[in-house]
Amino acid sequence: MITMRRSGDRGHFDHGWLDTWHTFSFADYHDPEQMGFSKLRVLNQDRIQPGQGFGTHGHRNMEIITYVLDGVLEHRDSMDNGSRIHPGEIQLMSAGSGVTHSEFNGSDRDRLHLLQMWVLPERTGTPPRYDRKRFPEAERRGRLRLLVSPDGRDGSIVIGQDVNLFGGLLRTGESVRQDLDPARSAWLHVARGRLKLNGTALEAGDGAGIRGESRLEVAGGDAGGVAGRVAGDNAGDEAAEFVLFDLP
Description:
By secondary structure, the protein is mainly β. The chain is built from 1 helix and 22 strands.
């Protein structure tokens, strides 16, 4: 069974410095029917104005994944990490027993566009941990690239939960297939562009919850006017960008 979560049905707040969309309940957006999916608790799509961001604040017992789409994210935390995250890079902060951090748009000119995704941990109270890694476009084009996993296989980032996160870039006419254990679940989110999931059309910002399916086929669609251009593409070479969670 595939359940659609359309872009316009998400929680939306425009604070001027921050334009944010919440797939699931978060902060001032509360919908008792949208409290997460399996172990995926938060999926926010944020656009942050130049020089703006989130001041120092704390987290506990959450696996926090950040996926930069455009711009540069400046991260600092109480573990003495200071990083600048660019498109194609993934950042994972395992908050564990407690961590504070700040996140800002690292540019004074360009807007920052990112996904932030929170996963409930398998164990609580673990030592906080930080990791980041770049996954080049070539590794995500026309395929599913494993980005995050519980065992770090294939060069992915380790997460403290039985969750696998894949990323992909598909042009019109390209498709990928993914076998699933029907006893598990999955969530697909379209960051930009248009896709078809098992024949159903999805546009930028759409999500889909998947249960009881043994195979997924994701096909690139006509990007039209809604797709963002992937950095480095030439004219006529637009691609849809998406993430896929394999969940307990």
